[in-house]
Amino acid sequence: MIVGVSGGADSICLLNFLLLLKEYELSIIVAHVNHSLRGEESERDADFVKKVCRDNGLEFELLVENASAIKKEMGKSIEESARIIRYRFFEILTTKYDAHKVATAHTACDQVETVFMRLIRGSGLKGLSGIPFFREPNIVRPLLEISKDEIKGFLTENKIKWVEDSSNTEQKYFRNKIRHKLIPVLNELNPNISENILRTSEQFTLNDSFISEHTNKLFKKVFRKTAAGFYLGNIKKFNKVHRFIKFALIREAIRRVNENLLNIDFDHVDSALKLLSSKKISGEVNLPNDLLIAKSYEDFIVTHKSKINPKYSYTIDSFGQHKFEHVSFRIKKVKVKKLDLGSNVALIDPKKFKFPIEIRNFRPGDKFVPFGMKGEKKLKNFFIDEKVPRYLRKLFPLFIINGEIAWVGGLRMSERFKVKGKECIKIEYSGRYI
Fold first, then answer.
1. 384 DSSP β-pair partners
2. What value, to the nearest 5°, has the Cα angle with vertex 225 and ends 312 and 405?
3. In 239-362, alpha helices (H)
């Protein structure tokens, strides 16, 4: 088990609780991060934790990082940057030691502060549920129902030392303002405010659990995950559900694409809902983290922009199976009795076929002669006629033979390459990218 230990009362208490659980024979690795924010005091904390580990025969892992420099690089607050640094370190140690759990020392007081912080920022139901006892894939918070007063009482009674972080009193940090300004005022109005917030947070957690279960069932009906890794939603099915569930569905799609909901707030999701419920045929909403929600015709997508804007070109000069990042296909010579074409199969006249051939995606100005027609047509207009959303057009592979588009993979062959006899070149496009 990896245990995050800063040297403060909370983490020292957590470490000592875990050491008492001898019957579980826990293998404990202590992780300490020096964020280089408090000079000599930061080094003092690291030395203190190292000594605690040495006294208890525990493995000690230290990471020294410049959180201020990383803050500028990430463009996030110093608190968020430091949090990201810690959890990345935990991931590295989890792999190194093949650890099953990572324990952090969040307390009931941290829970109350977090709920207030999220309420002030405009969080939804999930955010107001607070900090979970368990977070995927392996984070656990054993002290989440224990107050700081109880923790310090335990340490004092057992004569266990800890160190104080002077930054905990600095008013420039959002959490400290909540801790030292807001909560004391609310305590004057209601001495049980913390207990009430914890109870309310538990109710939000139960409500969110129910909503999440319902949302996950509907999610499979509204969305499908494409081979490219983004989510394609059906607008008609989406707009049948209650607005609250729509909100939850969008958040869940974003979470699955981005693996988290960092920097996503109410206004972002609300903008997406307005687009999807409007009468506009198409449109898009840009979100933080390079995320995009785009609508066109009967569908919409939730994705990272990079997923729908690949630029690729592959050249092959032989028959057989060919697999690339964006497309896989098989080319072979065959004899056919009936020209039975599926959407993923093209039959090319061997007289028109010549290696090498190029497989690439759509570029402005592309033209071809759609099967059954006589004249050339701009591929852009062909896509429009076929109601292919603009955001999907670069995902269809184009098979270029002798410099011409012979087949828009998955959609239509070119009239110029149609088979005139029994012998043909068969191209079978497998694993559609979209």
1. none
2. 30
3. 243-258, 266-277, 305-308
Tokens 């497309």, residue?
A: 327
- Is the bond into 191 cis (omega within 30 degrees of 0)? no
Q: Give the structural domain span for 20.
A: 2-194
* Domain endpoint, select from 282, 308, 334: 308
Residue 163 burial (10 A CB sphere; 0-12, 13-18, 19+)? middle
Distance CA 370, CA 383 (A): 11
Q: What is the pLDDT along the chain (434 residues), one digit of tens a residue?
A: 999 999 999 999 999 999 999 888 889 999 999 988 888 999 999 999 999 999 999 999 999 988 777 776 766 777 888 888 999 999 999 999 999 999 999 999 999 999 999 898 877 788 889 999 988 789 999 999 999 999 999 999 999 999 998 888 888 888 999 999 999 999 999 999 999 999 999 999 999 889 989 999 999 999 999 877 899 999 999 999 999 999 999 999 999 999 888 788 888 999 999 999 999 999 999 999 899 999 998 999 999 988 888 889 999 999 999 999 888 999 999 987 776 666 788 999 999 999 999 999 999 999 999 998 989 999 999 999 999 988 889 989 999 999 999 999 989 999 999 998 889 999 998 755 56
Number of domains in the chain: 3
Structure tokens at 269: 């999701």
Q: What angle (nearest 5°) sits at the alpha carbon of residue 202, between those of residues 200 and 204?
A: 70
**pTM recorded for the entire structure:** 0.69
CA distance 281 to 404: 32
Measure the CA–CA gap between 269 and 212, rounded to whole angstroms.
16
370 lies in the same domain as 318: yes
Distance CA 339, CA 372 (A): 14
Closest to 304 in 3D by CA, of 198, 195, 231: 231
- Please, are residues 303 and 285 in contact by the beta-carbon 8 Å criterion? no
Q: What is the CATH number of the domain that holds 317?
A: 3.50.40.10
Q: Is residue 45 part of a domain?
A: yes
The residue type found at 333 is: K
Give the max Cα distance, the chain.
93
Q: Provide the token pair at 221.
A: 């009906």
Distance (Å, whole) CA 146 – CA 402: 73
247-274 CB burial, b ≥16 within 10 A, e <16: bbbbbbbbeebbeebeebeeebbeebbe
Determine the Cα–Cα distance for residues 265 and 267; give it in Å rounded to an integer: 6
